[in-house]
Amino acid sequence: MSTNQSLKPLTLQVNQQGNLEIGGCDLIELAQEYGTPLYVLDEKTIRSVCNDYKDAFKNYPKVNMMYASKALCTSAVSVLLASEGFGFDVVSAGEIYTVYNAGIDMSKVLFNGNNKSVDELTLAIELGVGRISVDNFFELSLLNEIAKSHNKVADILLRITPGIECHTHEYIQTGHLDSKFGFDLTQIDEAVELILEQYKNLKLHGLHAHIGSQIFATTIYADEIEILIKEIARLDEKYSLKLDEINVGGGLGVKYTENDIPPSTYDIAEKIITSLNKNIEKYNITPPALFIEPGRSIISTAGVTLYTLGSSKQVPHGKKYFAVDGGMADNARPSMYGAEYTAQIVNKPDAQNLQTVTIAGRFCESGDILIKNIALPEIDEGDILCVYNTGAYNYSMASNYNRVLKPAMVLVNEGKAELIVKRETLDDIVAHDIIPQRLKK
Length: 441
Ligand code: LLP
Known about the structure:
Elements: E1 13-14, E2 20-22, E3 25-26, H1 27-34, E4 38-42, H2 43-56, E5 63-68, H3 75-83, E6 87-90, H4 93-101, E7 109-111, H5 118-126, E8 131-134, H6 137-149, E9 154-161, E10 183-184, H7 188-197, E11 202-208, H8 219-239, E12 245-247, H9 265-282, E13 289-292, H10 296-299, E14 303-314, E15 320-324, H11 333-337, E16 343-345, E17 355-360, E18 369-376, E19 384-388, E20 408-413, E21 416-421, H12 426-430
Parallel strand pairs: 4-20, 5-6, 5-13, 6-7, 7-8, 8-9, 9-10, 9-11, 11-12, 12-13, 15-17
Antiparallel strand pairs: 1-2, 2-3, 4-14, 14-15, 14-19, 16-19, 17-18, 20-21
Helix pairs in contact: 2-9, 5-6, 8-9
The structure holds ligand LLP.
């Protein structure tokens, strides 16, 4: 078993007060001290996933672990993952600046994205981002110009669409043929010729693909790797081009509910390494350095969100709703993807589940339902609900819908809780507003 296969943070337990605790911190006390909704991250769980990844991939000689920051990007999380030896896959100026400002070695940063702006590419070049994965012809030319104007050579990968369908939510698939991401296989030669003949300020190191997210079927990685290695061998034969890097993206799934059985980090590593070795031999290439860029599987399990339960409503002959003080603005995934979550009441972990209820969010939208039909004990107003596996794509996709303040985040470890993201204030909400003078009385 690896950490991504756990539904709950590894340190979760019921304490002597009869409450749930994580990282040795009583969740009721955290809710009282920091308020709700509150994102809680368990340091031990994060470090444990990192160790799983490092251990699982130790038999391939050249592995670079890049954390996909889009899953959860904060300064403290960046420093923590860097301390585990991870580099970073970033996708915006905001993410580049976060890791830079946190003191991360920029040579271990890879910049991805299908429409990077001039300002973002310029920032990447100026801050010395290690690799830029170029997505399309427009960007090739733009990046060459920017690198030239800075008297630099940009180190790049080419983002490829390998033409693989993966069975996950339609919106999270990226590697299939009709995708907005990357060069089609039939466009690679033209891109390579441009780089070799015209774009002298670009240095191509390898190929990059990402086939999707919340992936459970690991064999798909073997197919992806064969396509990438076959291309590397073909480019060598046709252009005498030695590409020595292969980036297989992220995607490993996690366990949101008891019904989810994600593969382990070891399964996925075994599939990837076996396929690499097999295809290196089959296509007779020098073993390339492997880059992987997991996001969700690194950070999801470590995170929970605490909410306070408030109003309730029994629809005559219908559902029973309980509303929490957060919802779609701090966790967009249920309303966006129909994502399912598991939860428990912090102060009643051992009580019998006596009812099936629906947990509604507080936002002005009927679709703002956090969890449909969950079995829970009797609920009292003010009880604290702990929703599991919210570390990835919750805070990072949070909004201020209804002008609601974004929650705070604490990192817990060995009985200590540390604030790593402050709760927004009402002043933050109006901080960017401007009232034109002429409208003022
Ligand atoms: N690399 C690339 C190029 C990606 O596009 C992504 C995710 C990753 C790595 C990391 O994938 P992961 O290991 O996290 O699956 N908001 C959606 C997920 C979108 C994923 C986008 N790309 C969700 O909440 O499910």
